[in-house]
Amino acid sequence: MAAPSSANSENTAVRLASPRGKWILLTTVLGSSMAMLDSTVVNVALPWIGRDLNADLAALQWTLNAYMVTLAGLILLGGALGDRFGRRRIFVLGVVWFAAASLLCGIAPNAAVLIVARALQGIGGALLTPGSLALIQASFHPDDRGRAVGLWSGFGGIGAAIGPFLGGWLVDGPGWRWVFLLNVPLAVLCVPVAVRHVPESADPRAHGRFDVLGAALGALCLALVTYALIEAGQRSAVLLTVIAVAGLAAGVGFVFVERRRPDPMMPLEIFSSRQFTAVNLVTLCVYAAFGGFFFLAAVQLQVVSGYSALGAGTALLPVTVLMLLLSARSGELGERIGPRIPLTVGPLVCALGLLLMLRVGPHASYVTDVLPALLVLGLGMVTLVAPLTATVLASVDTEHAGIASGVNNAAARAASLLAVAALPLLTGMGSEAYRSADAFGSAFRRAMPLCAGVLVVGAVLAYATVRRPVPECRQAQCHTHCCVTAPPLEGGTEDAAPPRK
């Protein structure tokens, strides 16, 4: 994003205390909350979706992964579209798209339609997710921008924290379809406010052709590899081998395109920083484990332990509440002692939490079995997430901070979707396992040590590779963060392009 070059541009920027500033904050929180809520509430609804649509486990995996494939593959392109064509315009388009896809999810007559609708939802999420933060940075006066970002991340964190509870209440009450239909009234409120009160802005330096080919190859790679993992054992081994090889070829093609393009979606030179590469490897490990855990835990609590959807959703609240309350303090601690210790200790504490989940079986007591594991897991996530983001930003030049954060966010989502695809295969979970308490419970007990082992690998990588950043490095702006599927997105430079009247 471009920086204002004169005092006049600052005079046209919006002040946070003004009525317009409050409207801008409201619409950006509403928009980002739509995507954040979906990332936490759908897991709780999976058993009910399966029963209502007579879907097998593979269809439930795709219900999560179809969304993640398009979101992870297109989120960098979504940010670039906003810079070029106007951040408000792309944000509003994303909200409308997301709501329309949510409506299609809510009325889906079968699993196939639901999966297609979830993929469309991911496209909307890729448009609105980077746009909400970009609008704040572009609209507010520089003196108010830091506080506005803090309020945006804090209110968004509250939305993420109530997501599992809200999802469980909706599933047990009006039904799982309202998990998706809820986005429609949110969009109806968000869009008029954005059109009326949010100033348009764009980056005058944005030029060149969009990297559509790179985005398509990245998404195709994720989709084909995911398909091969989910369908393993259900389809011909030869066919799945061909699909997996095609997916890897698409990944190689993505790297080739990004290396050759003058204006790539993901400039590969940022990986010349050894620390940036190392931190992204740590990200892949920890978010693969988190993605696998949150996919299985909500189902385990309902199918094996006998919890209602509301009970399962409420049971998971301690993780997000701890992140809401303590993530800012964790970031401050990481600044004082450096990221190496938090990024080493955090995954180890999370691994202990996952191993404690082995006590969660039939008729599990929440106070003695579930809560201790989730408290330990939450403390581990608090320890590592804020320092992880700060280290990503500190590992590259300031001008690449925004793209570095986007790459890290996309890497986390890709790791999560691959874990959701691979864990049932690795644990021998059959296509109807979620209908059987014994079958699912056995697979869950095999999955938790696997996830814990991946976290230990992440801790070892962090200890061996992460170093303290230089004092003058870029600091994270999002101090409060509760999303369990990916680290927070951060903007580019501290100054954003002035709003257009």
From TrEMBL:
<feature type="transmembrane region" description="Helical">
    <location>
        <begin position="236"/>
        <end position="257"/>
    </location>
</feature>
<feature type="transmembrane region" description="Helical">
    <location>
        <begin position="340"/>
        <end position="358"/>
    </location>
</feature>
<feature type="transmembrane region" description="Helical">
    <location>
        <begin position="210"/>
        <end position="230"/>
    </location>
</feature>
<keyword id="KW-1133">Transmembrane helix</keyword>
<keyword id="KW-0812">Transmembrane</keyword>
<dbReference type="Pfam" id="PF07690">
    <property type="entry name" value="MFS_1"/>
</dbReference>
<keyword id="KW-0472">Membrane</keyword>
<feature type="transmembrane region" description="Helical">
    <location>
        <begin position="370"/>
        <end position="394"/>
    </location>
</feature>
<feature type="transmembrane region" description="Helical">
    <location>
        <begin position="23"/>
        <end position="46"/>
    </location>
</feature>
<feature type="transmembrane region" description="Helical">
    <location>
        <begin position="278"/>
        <end position="301"/>
    </location>
</feature>
<protein>
    <submittedName>
        <fullName>MFS transporter</fullName>
    </submittedName>
</protein>
<dbReference type="InterPro" id="IPR036259">
    <property type="entry name" value="MFS_trans_sf"/>
</dbReference>
<feature type="domain" description="Major facilitator superfamily (MFS) profile">
    <location>
        <begin position="24"/>
        <end position="470"/>
    </location>
</feature>
<feature type="transmembrane region" description="Helical">
    <location>
        <begin position="406"/>
        <end position="427"/>
    </location>
</feature>
<feature type="transmembrane region" description="Helical">
    <location>
        <begin position="148"/>
        <end position="170"/>
    </location>
</feature>
<keyword id="KW-0813">Transport</keyword>
<feature type="transmembrane region" description="Helical">
    <location>
        <begin position="307"/>
        <end position="328"/>
    </location>
</feature>
<dbReference type="InterPro" id="IPR011701">
    <property type="entry name" value="MFS"/>
</dbReference>
<feature type="transmembrane region" description="Helical">
    <location>
        <begin position="115"/>
        <end position="136"/>
    </location>
</feature>
<feature type="transmembrane region" description="Helical">
    <location>
        <begin position="58"/>
        <end position="78"/>
    </location>
</feature>
<feature type="transmembrane region" description="Helical">
    <location>
        <begin position="447"/>
        <end position="466"/>
    </location>
</feature>
<keyword id="KW-1003">Cell membrane</keyword>
<keyword id="KW-0046">Antibiotic resistance</keyword>
<dbReference type="InterPro" id="IPR004638">
    <property type="entry name" value="EmrB-like"/>
</dbReference>
<feature type="transmembrane region" description="Helical">
    <location>
        <begin position="176"/>
        <end position="198"/>
    </location>
</feature>
<dbReference type="InterPro" id="IPR020846">
    <property type="entry name" value="MFS_dom"/>
</dbReference>
<feature type="transmembrane region" description="Helical">
    <location>
        <begin position="90"/>
        <end position="109"/>
    </location>
</feature>
